[in-house]
Amino acid sequence: MDPDYSAQDVARCDICKTAIAQSYCDFCHVNLCKPCIGEHISDDYKKNHAIVPIQQRKSTLIYPKCQTHQNEDCKYQCKDCNISICSDCLASKQHNKEHEFVKLEEVYNTKKKHVQSDTEELENQILPVYEEIANELEMQLASLDGEYKKLTTEMSEQREEMHREVDNAMEQMEKEIGEIKVKHHSILQKHLNEIKQLQSLMQQTLLVLNEIEECNEVSKTIHFSSKNEEFRKLPPKVVASMPKFIPKQIEREKLCSLIGKFTPLSTILEERVFTAKKPNKSVRELLDEPEVLNTIKTGQANLRSVTCLNEEQIWTSEETADIKCFNIQSVLQKTIKTKSGKWPSNIAVDRDEALLYSVWKTRTVYKVKNDQTEEIITLQGWKPVNLCVTSSGDLLVTMYSDEETLSKVVRYSGSTVKQIIQFDEEGQPLYSGNIYIKYISENRNLDICVADFGARAVVVVNQAGKLRFRYTGHPSPTKNNPFIPRGITTDSQSRILTADGGNHCIHILDTDGQFLRYIDNCDLEDPHGLCVDSNDSLLVCEYKKGNVKKIKYSK
C-alpha cells in the first residue's frame, strides 16, 4: 500500500492543508481538493498539469523532454541509437529509415512488469531465504554460550577424572612406601636382635670371669677358655639406605596432551544455491461462518489441555491425575495416571507419538511410551508448566521460578538445554513473572508464540528468541471483558489462534500479529487449551463443560 495514502491516513490537500483531497496532479505530484485545483493550475499555467482523481494518482506518464526540440516530449525510442526521441525527431533525417522505433509507453509498461516481477520475487522468494539465514545465525549465536559451557563441563569432568587417577596413583605409591618401610624396619630389627644376643652372651661371660677372679680354686681357673677372640670379631654392619622420591619433571605440553585436546575451530564457506520457493497452492481462506464439526464429551471437569495423537484420536488432561485418550466419536480409548499422582500442567505428543506431560509439583517432565514412564527433565529452582514439540523434534517448556517472580522458555534436545529465552534486547523480561499459565506453540515460520495469561498478551519471538511483537487484544463493542489469553496454537497458514476465556471466543491473528477475526459463533464456553489437526480443524477445550469442540474455520 502506498505510504502516502491509505484508508487509515486520509490524504489532505497539499495547498490548504485541511480539506480532504479528491484530486491529484500527476505532473507536480501534489494532492488537491476541488477548490484548490484552480489555484494550483494558475500558479504555473505553463506546466502540463495532469489533474486526475486521487484513486488514479501517478497514472499519467511523465515523458522526458527532447534535447533537440525542447518543447516536445519524447514518446519514442530509437532502438538503433538507443535514445529517446520526439515526433519531430521521428520525421527528421537524423535517423535512418531502417532504424527501428518503439513507443516509450511500451518500453515503460514492459519495464514496469519487470519491476513488479522483481518486487514480487524479492518480497516472496529472496527476502524469506535471507530471513531464514539470519534466523539460523541468530539461533547459532543464541546457543553459543550453551555449547561452550558444554565444552567447559566436559573439561571439568576430565579434570575430576584425572584428579581421581592421580589420587589413586599417589595412594598406590604411599602403599609401596609403607611396604618398603616395613621391610627396612625388619632388617634393622633382626640385626639389633643379633647384637643384643651377643651382648647377653658377653654379660654371662663377665659374670664367669668375675667369679674366677674372686675364687682360688685351681681347677676352675686352669680350665677357663677365653672367648674374647670371638667377641672381637664384630658382626657385619647393616647399611640400609633410605629410599628417595624422585619426582618426574612435569612438561606442560605433555601434560596437556595427557588431559586431552581440542579439535580446531573449523570454518568453511559452503556455497548456497538459491532455490525459489514454490507458492503455497493449498491456501486455506478463513470461513465467514465457522462451524462445529463434532463435540467430544470427555466427562472431565476443569478440562485444561488437548493434543492430537493422530487423525482419529486425541489426548486430554484435567485437574486430576488422569490423562485420557478419546476417539473422535467420544469413545474412551485409554487412561494413563501420572507417575506422581499429581495432575499434569500440560500434555504434548512427540514425533514418535509418545505422550509427554509436565507436573509442576514434582518439577519434572515425563515421557510415556509403550506404557513405560520415564523422567526426561527434572528441574532445580524452576517448575515446568506448558510444553510444545517443535518441527525439529526439540521440546519447548515454559517454566517459572520457585520464588514465582521469573518466567522463561527453555528449548531442550532430549534432556539437554539448547536455548533459554527470558529477556529482550534491552534486558527486560519477555514474560510475566508469575505462576499463571503460559501456553506455547511453534509457528510454521519457527516463531515461538506464548499466550501469557499474567501479562494479558500473546508474546511472539523469532527462532533466536528476539521479540517480534506483542498482541494485547482487539477492540470490539461486543467483547466487554479484558483480553486474557489461555490456549494457543498455529495452523498451516502460519496463523495464530488463541483462546479468550473471558469473552468466550478465539482470536485469529496473522503471522505478524495483525488481528484477522474472531471465532465467536460456535457457542463456546470458557475456551482453554487448543490444538489444530493436520486438516486445520481447531480442537478447543471447554474448561467447565469438559467438552472438546472440533471447529472448521477455514476452507
Short description:
The protein has helices spanning 34-43, 87-91, 104-214, 218-222, 228-232, 252-259, and strands at 23-25, 30-32, 51-53, 76-78, 83-85, 101-103, 286-297, 305-308, 313-317, 322-327, 332-337, 346-349, 355-359, 364-369, 372-378, 382-389, 395-401, 407-413, 416-421, 438-442, 448-452, 457-461, 467-471, 485-490, 496-500, 505-509, 515-519, 527-532, 537-542, 547-554.
Number of domains: 2
Shape, principal axes of CA atoms: elongated
| Structural class computed from helices and strand pairing | alpha+beta
| Overall number of strands | 30
Our Rg estimate from Cα atoms comes to 46 Å
- Low-confidence spans: 1-8
What is the CATH topology of the largest domain?
Neuraminidase
Helix count equals: 6
How would you explain this protein's 3D organization?
With 555 residues, this protein is an alpha+beta fold. The protein folds into two domains: 108-259, no CATH class; 292-554, 6 Propeller (Neuraminidase), CATH 2.120.10.30. Helices cover 26% and strands 29% of the residues. Strand 26 and strand 27 (515-519) form a beta hairpin. The longest helix is centred in the N-terminal third of the chain and has 111 residues, at 104-214. The model is unreliable at 1-8 (pLDDT under 50).
